[in-house]
Structure formats: structure tokens, C-alpha cells
Design goal:
Blueprint lengths: L2 E5 L15 H6 L1 H7 L3 E4 L27 H13 L3 E6 L9 H8 L5 H4 L3 E2 L22 E3 L17 E3 L14 H17 L3 E4 L25 H12 L6 E5 L5 H5 L9 E3 L2 H4 L4 H16 L7 E2 L8 H4 L3 H17 L4 E4 L64 H6 L4 H14 L8 E4 L5 E6 L5 E5 L14 E2 L12 E4 L1
Parallel strand pairs: 1-2, 1-11, 2-3, 3-7, 7-8, 8-9, 10-11
Antiparallel strand pairs: 4-6, 5-6, 12-13, 13-14, 14-16, 15-16
Bound molecules: 1-deoxynojirimycin.
1-deoxynojirimycin (NOJ) binds next to loops.
Length: about 500
């Protein structure tokens, strides 16, 4: 039932003035996070990376990128997080590496069919001279999921292109996919898991946990054979066994599959402890739609005896305030949904900055940094804009230098320091909600028991307790059910719960 606070490391706090967040910056904010009342931090990837995908392209899974700090800086953060009563989770990227990893460079330098190539998904091309990709898979970032290896300098003269293979990348061409049937690949993750667990991390996030094992023959679409193949569960059983060698640790998978029923297969008793996805984040602000998602998730994971993990936003989606319409209505809805999320049984992931009610930042085209996200109209930069801490400091307290993504003027009014002093702020709402979630017995109750309410609204009681959560997503104020008010996401109107508002009773 922990509340995980997801730190997008580049945008959290910069301690050394280079304009990008770092580990000592996170360390400086541990007091804030303790005050906020979360239980754990889940960091975005911190390993050495050329930052094509901001850390999701790793050259060495067992070190820390110098932009963020060093292994000693990591150890210091971990020790101090523990001293603040906060657990710490690191993000591992076992699906692919950076093109800069020694393995991939060795693969390119070796001949087709070599064992160096076998760690990745190299294939000959189709058609004349192998000029067409081996299959029709698209990349998640747009364009084909295949790139043809470059012409080796030594081969320029003979012009024999036919030998040039293609490599698979479900994301950008700078992120070649690993072949999970290769023993080195499996052994390497085990070494990496033990490396971080031995250092004392409380958990690991497994990125793209559903994508590790496409079928060996890489068949054409349709049916999307790229993801969610049965073989992947064997990998998760190995991960679980390794993590279980250490006491009190956990593994959470980032799982994007066809629905909660498929997701539940990742949290069977001998697989990952938790799986997080975007189903709640993708639900519109509509009481029926949200209720359906909640019920479906609970039924699916309940069938395998696992908790549902709830997430409203992360660094890949538009922030809640903007997603729910922006402006005052978007903010009111985001606050209401925070109370819904935090009233549900099971862990919650809160994306950094959501506790400040941040909207997506408008990032001008020339300042965009998410260059791999080529198929979307907008990049993912909007939800990755650095956090505003203190309007009396340069760079709003994020950096003394020049911020890697521009911080919009609108963030000046949303600084954490100001919100800490304002009892009506979104930060104060989160603090009160998290305090109640910790202290009130209702939050240790059972699954939601739903009861009928006005159209466009829902209410549920946590089974076996008197704790009720009400959401009004209708356009009119509605009466509240009987009970003492514990917390409301916005002011009542003459005793009625206004539109875009939630209450805990
Ligand atoms: C999932 C991460 O959340 C996303 O940010 C990244 O681009 C992809 N994995 C590829 O690594």
C-alpha cells in the first residue's frame, strides 16, 4: 500500500548548476519528501547514458552517469533516504541498451552470425540486396523498428551491401533490442539486480517488462507479436527469485499490455510484486469510465492475489491538470482524481510535480529535447519540465544555471515553497491526503463497495470501514452522503459537492 513518488531525475533538482537534475539535488529535497508524506522514491534511470532517451538508453547498467553524480553520491542518497524513512527504487532497462554499450559496439564490429551479434536482434534484410527491413514492425517512436547497420569503413571499396544486417529497436535506433534467449543477456540482468540490491536499494523498476521476448522468428504483424509473449514470464520468475534472495525488496514492472487481465499475469505469485500501467491515466474524467477501470483492474489482479497499483501520470503522458482540460477545471479535476487514487487499496505512484498541480509546460519547438518521440504531434517534454521550488531563487530553485528545458512563467505561481504556506494549495491537499492515508484506519479497509449516486458521480466505501470516497464528475453540485468530512479536493458550495470535486468522508 506504499505511495511511491516517481522522480524524473533530470527535472527534479540541480545541485551543481549544470541545468540538469542530479542525485545530490534529490538528497537536498528528502526533507520535503518526508514532509509530503510519501513512502518511497522511484528514480528514473541513473546509469551512464548518452541521453538520447534521457537515461532509457544505458551504456553501463552498473554505474551512475556523471551528470547525476557517482556511485558514492548514490550511496549517500540511499543512506539518507533511509534515515528519512523513505525507501528507494531504481529503474532498470533490460529490454534494450544504448547503441553506445560495449556489447553493441562489439556486435557491429563482428561478423553476421557471431556470438557478439547474438546478444541483439540482428537479421538479414529482405528483398534485393537485403535492402528491405526483415519484417514490418513499427517502432513505438515512429518509423520502422529496424535500422540497417552502417557500412563499415573497410568495406567502402567492394560495395557489397548484401552482407549488411538490420537490427531491431522497438524504440529509437539508438536503443537496440536485446535477445533474451541469449545466456549473457539473462546473466547480465541478474548481475545488475544483485549489484543494486547489494547496495541496499529497496526495489527495482523493470522498464518495458512486457517487451523482452518477441518470438524468435519475428513474424510480421498483425496480432502484434512484438509484445506480451508467454516467454517473458520466465524472465520475471527469475527476477523474482533473485529479488527474493534479499529481505523486504520488491520489483515493479512497467507493463503496457492489452488490458488488466493480461497485466495480472505479470504479478502472479512467483513473478513481479507489482505492475504499473497507464489504464487509469488513460481514463477520461468520467465517473463511469473511471469506476469501470478500477473495477476491472481490481478483479484482474485480485484473481492472482496481487494488489492493483494506481498511477495517474508519469514522464510519458500529459500531466493530469492538462489532460483533464487545463485551467481551473483541469486543476480541480486533477485534485479530485488524486483523492480517488489515494483512496483505493494498493500502492499508488505519484509523478513528481503532480503534488504541485503542475500543468504540462509549453516547450517551444526549438527547445524540445524529446527528439526520439517522432510520431506524436507533441513531444513528451511537456510533462518533463523541471519542478518549481522557490520563486525567490534563480531558476525557481531548480537550478542556478540554465535549465535543460525552459521553465514556463506560469510555474512561478506554483512553487513548492509558496504552496507549503498555503493551506488551500494542491501541495497541502496532497500532504493532508497522505497523512490521512497513513493514520486513518479506513485506508486499511477492503476493496471498494460501490453505491448508487447521482448521474456522473460515484461513491465507494472501503469494505469493513466507514471510509467513503465520493467523486462528482457531473456538471452540477450534488449532496454528500452522510458522514463527517475528512478531506475535500475543493471548497463545498452551500454544503454541496461541486462539479470536478471529490471528498473523503
Ligand atoms: C519506457 C519509458 O517510460 C520511456 O520513457 C522510454 O522512452 C521507453 N521505455 C524506452 O526506453
Amino acid at each position: 500500500d506504499a505511495v511511491f513518488y516517481r522522480v524524473y531525475v533530470p527535472s527534479f533538482t540541480d545541485s551543481d548548476g549544470d541545468g540538469i537534475g542530479d542525485l545530490p539535488g534529490i538528497r537536498d529535497r528528502l526533507g520535503y519528501l518526508e514532509l509530503l508524506g510519501v513512502d518511497a522514491l522511484c528514480l528514473s534511470p541513473i546509469c551512464p547514458s548518452p541521453m538520447v532517451d534521457h537515461g532509457y538508453d544505458v551504456t553501463d547498467p552498473r554505474d551512475v552517469d556523471r551528470r547525476w553524480g557517482s556511485l558514492p553520491a548514490f550511496d549517500a542518497l540511499l543512506t539518507e533516504a533511509h534515515a528519512h524513512g523513505l525507501r528507494l527504487v531504481v529503474d532498470l532497462v533490460p529490454h534494450h541498451t544504448s547503441e553506445g554499450r560495449d556489447w553493441f559496439r562489439a556486435a557491429l564490429a563482428s561478423a553476421p552470425g557471431s556470438s557478439e551479434r547474438a546478444r541483439y536482434q540482428f537479421r538479414p534484410g529482405r528483398g534485393d540486396g537485403g535492402a528491405a527491413p526483415p519484417n514490418d514492425w513499427p517502432s513505438m517512436f515512429g518509423g520502422p523498428a529496424w535500422t540497417r547497420e552502417p557500412v563499415p569503413v573497410s568495406d567502402d571499396a567492394d560495395g557489397d551491401d548484401g552482407r549488411r544486417e538490420w537490427y531491431l529497436h522497438l524504440f529509437s535506433s539508438a536503443q537496440p533490442d536485446l535477445d533474451w534467449t541469449h545466456a549473457d543477456v539473462r546473466a547480465d540482468l541478474e548481475t545488475t539486480l544483485r549489484f543494486w540490491l547489494e547496495r541496499g536499494v529497496d526495489g527495482v523498476r523493470i522498464d518495458v517488462a512486457h517487451g523482452l521476448c518477441p518470438p524468435a522468428d519475428l513474424p510480421d504483424l498483425p496480432g502484434d507479436p512484438r509484445l506480451d509473449q508467454d516467454a517473458v514470464h520466465d524472465v520475471h520468475r527469475t527476477i523474482r527469485a533473485t529479488v527474493d534472495d534479499y529481505t523486504g525488496r520488491m520489483a515493479v514492472g512497467a507493463v503496457a499490455v492489452a488490458g488488466p487481465e493480461r497485466l495480472a499475469r505479470y504479478v502472479r505469485p512467483d513473478e513481479l510484486h507489482l505492475a504499473v500501467d497507464v489504464v487509469l491515466a488513460h481514463a477520461p474524467f468520467d465517473a463511469d469510465a473511471v469506476r469501470k477501470v478500477i473495477e476491472r483492474c481490481l478483479t484482474a489482479v485480485g484473481a492472482v492475489g496481487a494488489p492493483a497499483t494506481w498511477m495517474l501520470a508519469d514522464h510519458d503522458v500529459v500531466r493530469t491538470v492538462s489532460r483533464y482540460g487545463g485551467g481551473p477545471a483541469g486543476l480541480a479535476r486533477a485534485r479530485a482524481m488524486a483523492l480517488v487514487q489515494l483512496a483505493l487499496p494498493g500502492p499508488a505512484f505519484v509523478y513528481n510535480g503532480d503534488e504541485l498541480g503542475l500543468p504540462d509546460g509549453a516547450v517551444p519547438v526549438e527547445a524540445r529535447r524529446d527528439l526520439v518521440w517522432t510520431h506524436a504531434e507533441d513531444s513528451r517534454d511537456g510533462s518533463r519540465v523541471p519542478l518549481p521550488w522557490d520563486d525567490t531563487l534563480p531558476g525557481l530553485g531548480f537550478t542556478a544555471g540554465s535549465s535543460w528545458l525552459p521553465i514556463p512563467d506560469a510555474f512561478t505561481a506554483l512553487c513548492a515553497a509558496t504552496q507549503l504556506e498555503d493551506t488551500g494549495s494542491t501541495l497541502s491537499l496532497y500532504r493532508q491526503a497522505l497523512e490521512l492515508r497513513r493514520s486513518h484506519a479506513g485506508f486499511r479497509g477492503g476493496e471498494p463497495e460501490w453505491f448508487d449516486g447521482p448521474l456522473g458521480c460515484f461513491a465507494f466505501r472501503r469494505a469493513g470501514t466507514s471510509l467513503v470516497c465520493v467523486l462528482n464528475a457531473s456538471p452540477a453540485p450534488v449532496p454528500l452522503p452522510a458522514g463527517d468530512i475528512l478531506l475535500v479536493s475543493g471548497p463545498l458550495e452551500y454544503g454541496l459537492l461541486p462539479p470536478d470535486t471529490a471528498a473523503w468522508l
